[in-house]
Amino acid sequence: MTLAPTITTDRLILRAPCGDDIAAITQFFAQERARFYGGPLPEDQAWRRLATYAGQWMLLGYGLFTITLKETGEPIGMAGPVHPCDFSEPELSWLLTSTEYEGHGFAAEACKAVLTYLFDRLGWSTVVSYIDPENLGSKALATRLGAVIDAQAAIPACLPGCVAYRHFPAGAQK
């Protein structure tokens, strides 16, 4: 049994990470484009990363959702809060497993649904995204989602040079 709800959007289903995601996630982490997520990683380390993402749901009651295409059920990415023990607060993170899924608005659609879940269902008042300045796509998405740079946020030691983008509920004071 999982603690993760299933969230449905127009084109996507967001669900708990599971064994069906191993191939997509290990493929993602094998690529150079995974450098903003601690990669590239060999298959065994990518598997452990997915296990960590799945386990966070059991430990904390929230975590990354697997993004799947509604029409096919194919896993195409992940989105949601991650909260390693060395982070002072949860981070809203996202990834798409292949460049073929970029440019279609999938990450934005998933992140909007996750933010609604965090703010409306869990009652969070804010969440941060730590973004490498070279990750232009994630910077653009954070801005598109309405996040603002938070120069006061504590950047985890394992993410030197990252910039904190702060997300708030719609209509909240920034």
Structure overview:
By secondary structure, this protein is of the alpha+beta class. A hairpin with a 3-residue loop joins β1 (7-8) and β2. The strands form two sheets. The chain has a five-stranded antiparallel β-sheet with strand order 1-2-3-4-5, sandwiched between helices. It has helices spanning 22-29, 43-60, 106-121, 136-144; strands at residues 7-8, 12-15, 65-69, 75-82, 91-96, 127-131, 148-149, 163-167. It has a domain at 7-123: Gcn5-related N-acetyltransferase (GNAT) (Aminopeptidase, 3-Layer(aba) Sandwich), CATH 3.40.630.
List the helices and strands and how they pair.
Layout: E1 7-8, E2 12-15, H1 22-29, H2 43-60, E3 65-69, E4 75-82, E5 91-96, H3 106-121, E6 127-131, H4 136-144, E7 148-149, E8 163-167
Antiparallel strand pairs: 1-2, 2-3, 3-4, 4-5, 6-8, 7-8
Task: List descriptors.
174 residues; 21% strand; alpha+beta; Aminopeptidase; globular; 5-stranded antiparallel sheet; 8 strands; 29% helix; 3-stranded antiparallel sheet
Largest sheet: 5 strands, antiparallel
Radius of gyration: 15 Å
The CATH homology group name of the domain at 7-123: Gcn5-related N-acetyltransferase (GNAT)
CATH class of the domain at 7-123: Alpha Beta
Alpha plus pi helix count? 4
**Class computed from helices, strands and strand pairing:** alpha+beta
The N- and C-terminal alpha carbons lie at a distance of 38 Å
Share of residues in strands: 15-25%
Mean pLDDT across the residues is 96
Low-confidence stretches: none
Report the order of strands and helices.
EEHHEEEHEHEE
CATH architecture of the domain at 7-123: 3-Layer(aba) Sandwich
What characteristic shape results from the CA principal axes? globular
What share of the residues lie within helices?
Answer: 25-40%
Total beta strand runs: 8
Q: Strand order of the main beta sheet, please? A: 1-2-3-4-5
Task: Quote the CATH topology of the domain at 7-123.
Answer: Aminopeptidase
